[in-house]
Amino acid sequence: MKNIIYLCVFLSLNASAKLEKKVFKLSVYTTVLGETIRDLRVGYETYGVLNKDKSNVILVTHHFSGNSRAIGYWESIIGPGKALDTNKYFIISSDTLVNLGANDPEIVTTGPRTINPTTKKPYGMSFPKVVLEDFVRVQRELLQSLGIKKLYAVAGASSGAAQAVSWAAYYPEDVPRVIAVVPPGLSLPPYVIALLNRWMAPILLNPKKGLVESLKLITQSSVYFDWASPQKDMEAALDERAKMRAKTADAESLLYTARAIQAFNIEDQASKIKAEILFIPAEKDMIFPVELSEDAAKNLCSLGKSAEVVVIKGRGGHLDGLSKVGDVSQEIIQFLERKPGKNHCKTN
Amino acid sequence: MKNIIYLCVFLSLNASAKLEKKVFKLSVYTTVLGETIRDLRVGYETYGVLNKDKSNVILVTHHFSGNSRAIGYWESIIGPGKALDTNKYFIISSDTLVNLGANDPEIVTTGPRTINPTTKKPYGMSFPKVVLEDFVRVQRELLQSLGIKKLYAVAGASSGAAQAVSWAAYYPEDVPRVIAVVPPGLSLPPYVIALLNRWMAPILLNPKKGLVESLKLITQSSVYFDWASPQKDMEAALDERAKMRAKTADAESLLYTARAIQAFNIEDQASKIKAEILFIPAEKDMIFPVELSEDAAKNLCSLGKSAEVVVIKGRGGHLDGLSKVGDVSQEIIQFLERKPGKNHCKTN
Questions:
Q1: CA distance linking residue B219 with residue A206, whole number of Å
Q2: Which residue of A has its CA nearest to B215?
Q3: Exposed / middle / buried, residue A3 (Cβ in 10 Å: 0-12, 13-18, 19+)
């Protein structure tokens, strides 16, 4: 019997991984800054089975260059028997608005590449400005369309972690648990706001040729020294990766995504958070160093919240939040399975 | 009497700091790669007094955006009674070839902005390619023109440290002591070779407007997170600094300087080194992390050389190699004053 269930999960997972990109549509969406987007569409994927009372939902919010295929970049923790166990939980992840991979046929997003229904041409830079909170609001609309009112947890890496803690700040009743991997803390540090300007600069300096250089700088920022060691020519490796990505990435969407992330700041909402938060920084992360997680956790604990820090060991830098998150599977499982309510504070 | 000496040193230092940029000229210089540069000129400054047997010379080799005014960026260790004591030592520092600050009237350099004697126009990108070893060779020509055959020490920060250890590798008989501050080790790591490409990219993408962005990225790479904390708007601070620097910096010279530094690699010459080397990395350096110094020192010690590591504590990142080097003054003084010969290995 158990084997049959595994087989069914396997088949359904496989089907969803290969084919079932679903599309959420919203006829009118009003942005946080008060502009209107018509005919909004974002893609999403689900893994596992939604239980009857819809109480087993884990939302996965993706990072800068990610998309709704969460099982692609977090395969070490999403699946049957894994930390985000698809035998127990219903995992859902959606493509963000203004998704970087706007030219990828697998990604469904609304942003600068979308045809403006009024002009019948792509919006380009006339697309309304969006902020990180818009990503969260659209995810919430999607969940509500599925009748899901409360989450079991939200989990995300990097700017996905920023979305996850934003969920807890903006919708405290809906979110009992947050898993924030390689996270910025409760706001984007000035250093990283500036770094995002550096990422955008090549495109602004040369709209035609800048995208590849932007993607190279993003990868270079995201790795630690050792990334290059096996392949002595790091430049060639960066170039190859960036050129491959540039095939499906969109320069204007990169600008919109970067600006949305720059707006992340829930410092003033932190007191409203009810969720327990597990911060999982990576040891050698040069974008969001470990101390940002420690500061955020201390801050939350001083407000009487539950916040813990578990560090991913390794020399991969920021990217360890994707490739090595499986190393802290046990800590994630314990966090997901324990009863919330008690104050858990562990901040080194 | 002592006071009078101090006064004299003060006056002579002041005079040199304000006025005495000297110029070294070489009618023909052949580059490491075999090209010819005619009428080469580089500026230099000296502090302190050259003793009779010319045995008290400390050469200071400068960093990427530095110049011969060593007393400007290393004021905490250069001066009477300081670690590089101008009462004892004769300090000399020259502007590099292809110096970034080619449009600064205080800097004398030969590079893309120089008038090509043949065409009567600036060389621009037709200037011969130079490598870091060329910086060292020109310094040696300058010293020989002053009758200085052997140094007491060479000291430099960042790519200046690369020049300092190159001196020890290429001219082992001339260099008994090297002080390598925020240094790359014995070669430029692939990560930093690639990072220098990122620094160059804005200029290559937009020759007219790219310089300011390059300078912003260079500063952003050189500081740690805290640089922005006092001034919440890091972008504005970067912008202000970059625009001021851009007034005297030259985009093409930046490309030449970056490429020269990318060529730094003395791994194969390490066995020839006779100097004792003091590596002084900075705790939060994200360009040349502490472990690069430790690896280089271990490597040298395993070859029977003397190499030690002393870490600058602080949260300034790479720039701590300039602003906080005074914190390790005692270690520098001990290193300079002890008799060489014994094997000193201390690599944590």
A1: 21
A2: A198
A3: exposed
Q: pLDDT band for position A233 (50/70/90)?
A: confident
Distance CA A37, CA A175 (A): 27
User: ipTM for the complex?
Assistant: 0.92
pLDDT score of B7 more than 70: no
Q: Does B316 touch chain A (CB under 8 A)?
A: no
The answer to whether A254 and A103 have CB atoms below 8 angstroms apart is: no
Does the beta carbon of B295 lie under 8 angstroms from any beta carbon of chain A? no
CB atoms within 10 A of CB B41: 15
| Closest to A264 (Cα-Cα) out of A99, A132, A66 | A132
User: Which of A19-23, A56-60, B234-238 is least confident?
Assistant: A19-23
Interface subset of B 264-293, CB within 8 angstroms of A = 286, 289
**Residue B230 pLDDT > 60, yes or no?**
no
Please list the residues that pair with B280 across neighbouring strands: B181
What beta strand segments (E) does chain A contain? 22-30, 36-47, 57-61, 78-79, 84-85, 90-94, 153-157, 177-181, 276-280, 307-309, 345-346
- What is the C-alpha separation between A154 and A158, in angstroms, rounded? 13
In a mutagenesis test of the B interface, which of A187, A191, A291 is the best target, namely the one with the most B β-carbons within 10 Å?
A191
